[in-house]
Write a structure and sequence with these properties.
CATH class of the largest domain: Mainly Alpha
Helix content: 40-55%
Distance between the termini: 42 Å
CATH superfamily of the largest domain: NADH-ubiquinone oxidoreductase 51kDa subunit, iron-sulphur binding domain
Largest sheet: 3 strands, antiparallel
Structural class: mainly alpha
Number of domains: 2
CATH architecture of the largest domain: Up-down Bundle
CATH topology of the largest domain: de novo design (two linked rop proteins)
Number of strands: 3
Strand order of the largest sheet: 2-1-3
Number of helices: 8
Length: 197
């Protein structure tokens, strides 16, 4: 397909549509390190300029599609967790930032989120972005910032209802990782010492 083909044409005419006939909720035009776009961006041309104007990047061109049954908090947590595992540990913003972001996202996803978690997540994104030696940390910030931008209501519902508004999953009291997330995740402003904001 030529550059500039829209996701709608690619998805509906060439890929068989969203799996199971479900509605499109979110997608990344360039893999896991590029910001999520929404169904409102279905007609954005898949070229560098158009995707950038829409608020994302073409990146590798590896398109990920999420449907109406996918939880965006879970999606962000899974992607950030991937980057936390892949971090070499050299740079503090990446090593510590992705580790803590995974825990705060895990707490929200598990139904133990707090109102103050949302500004903490926004602070984490600002304090990780462009602060590490390589682009891995920047890739980890994309799912955080873009889901907060486009799906803030889903985060707020997780916190207010104590469960996922999409899947209905609630607190998991027996999960060791959930308890760790609840206990250790930061609850206040997140700054990396010695790094100007």
């Amino acid at each position: 397909l030529p550059m500039g083909t829209s996701l709608r044409v690619l998805l509906e005419d060439h890929a068989g549509g969203v799996l199971g006939g479900k509605a499109l909720k979110a997608w990344t035009p360039g893999g896991s390190s590029t910001p999520f776009l929404t169904a409102d961006h279905l007609d954005v041309g898949l070229d560098f300029e158009s995707v950038m104007e829409a608020g994302s990047l073409l990146g590798t061109g590896a398109i990920m599609v999420l449907d109406e049954t996918d939880c965006m908090v879970e999606a962000a947590r899974r992607l950030v967790e991937f980057y936390a595992r892949e971090s070499c540990g050299k740079c503090t913003p990446c090593r510590e930032g992705t580790w803590w972001a995974t825990r705060v996202l895990g707490r929200i996803e598990a139904g133990y989120g707090r109102d103050e978690d949302l500004p903490v997540m926004a602070d984490m994104g600002k304090n990780i972005l462009f602060r590490a030696f390589c682009a891995l940390a920047d890739g980890a910030v994309s799912p955080i910032q873009s889901t907060l931008t486009h799906f803030m209501g889903e985060y707020e519902a997780h916190i207010q209802q104590g469960r996922c508004p999409v899947t209905g999953r609630g607190p998991s009291h027996d999960a060791e990782s959930t308890q760790e997330a609840v206990t250790f995740a930061p609850t206040g402003p997140f700054e990396i010492q010695g790094v100007p904001s």
